[in-house]
Specification:
The protein is of the alpha/beta class and about 325 residues long. The chain has a single domain, classed as D-Maltodextrin-Binding Protein, domain 2. Strands 1, 2, 3, 4, 5, 6, 7, 8 and 9 form a nine-stranded mixed β-sheet that branches.
């Protein structure tokens, strides 16, 4: 055998050994990440931080392409594609996964979480871990990086000073049974509708009201088509990074760890940002011309107990969470 051939064989063996020795870095991925929020929403910045952190942690081996504002479909389409392996990462709430697994619907129960601290205690504690294992094993959804959006508030084109004022109010809700039932029990007339249709529906008078956290109310410019904001704080709003659990399990441990770190790092930024902005957002919507009402929430909380009774399968989870 010639010396040149021996040299080539030696180089090939060395390269092979290097690849075997570092399997985590030998895998190259491009992940498609999508969400339905506007590009001006803080969730877009969180997604960009997720992308940049993941690229840094994997030395460029994992790239992320971001599609905001429902460019690839509404949240239902995105999650269906995610479960089937067509989509890689979706940013949405745990509650929106209820059509894939009933247990996820507990997050949409009204007045479930007391505050941000309670939210973190639950989702980063044993109850939250138990829930996430169920969703991964039985629904094929891996949930990472909990982002607290604040509480959902009501906007309307007529004053809502008390729960009685909800009677007959045509309100847009996400197309989820738990949220439809909540607003029916509260006395309103809920209409399921995709987020991308809400602004024009309010503008044209198809609906009278909607409910979302303050950040979305601002980024969606809803003050242009709604006169009143009522601080009902009826439901915790959140975002999570959702992935196909089986596909994630096939990635190398190095990439898995990097994805987890990127999700948690961007979530920490998001939570700090929301906390800093929360106190000023009410003033911002007032400056935009909205009238703000702060109703007595006791009647809302009492009525919420009737909502939970409508979902007996969720009661065990609900009781665990409120007891924390």
């Amino acid at each position: 055998m010639s010396s040149a051939r021996r040299c080539l064989i030696h180089v090939a063996v060395v390269l092979t050994c290097l690849c075997v020795a570092q399997p985590g870095l030998a895998q190259s991925l491009t992940l498609r990440l999508a969400h339905v929020q506007e590009a001006s929403d803080p969730v877009q910045k969180a997604a960009e931080l997720f992308r940049d952190t993941l690229a840094s942690e994997t030395k460029g081996q994992v790239a992320v392409k971001i599609a905001p504002a429902g460019q690839l479909g509404d949240y239902k389409q995105l999650q269906e594609n995610l479960q089937q392996g067509v989509m890689d990462v979706v940013i949405e709430s745990i509650g929106t996964l209820s059509r894939f697994h009933k247990a996820a619907g507990v997050e949409s129960m009204p007045y479930l979480f007391r505050d941000y601290q309670h939210y973190v205690k639950v989702w980063e504690g044993p109850i939250g871990e138990e829930m996430k294992q169920v969703l991964a094993k039985e629904g094929n959804f891996l949930v990472l990086g909990h982002m607290f959006r604040g509480f959902r508030q009501l906007t309307a084109n007529r004053p809502v000073r008390a729960i009685e004022d909800l009677r007959g109010l045509k309100i847009r809700v996400s197309p989820m049974k738990e949220r439809l039932v909540t607003w029916k029990v509260f006395g309103a007339s809920p209409t399921p509708m995709a987020w991308g249709e809400v602004f024009s529906a309010l503008q044209q008078g198809v609906i009278d009201a909607q409910e979302n956290p303050l950040g979305t109310i601002l980024s969606g410019s809803l003050y242009e088509v709604q006169k009143y904001l009522t601080l009902t704080s009826h439901m915790c709003a959140s975002f999570t990074y959702q992935l196909n659990a089986k596909r994630f399990a096939g990635w190398s441990p190095t990439i898995q760890a990097a994805v987890r770190k990127a999700a948690n790092h961007s979530a920490e930024w998001y939570n700090q940002h929301v906390a800093e902005q929360e106190e000023t957002m009410v003033k911002q919507v007032e400056a935009k011309g909205m009238t703000v009402f702060r109703p007595d929430l006791k009647p809302f909380r009492e009525r919420a107990k009737e909502v939970v009774k409508e979902f007996p399968d969720l009661q065990p989870w609900f009781l665990k969470i409120v007891a924390q």
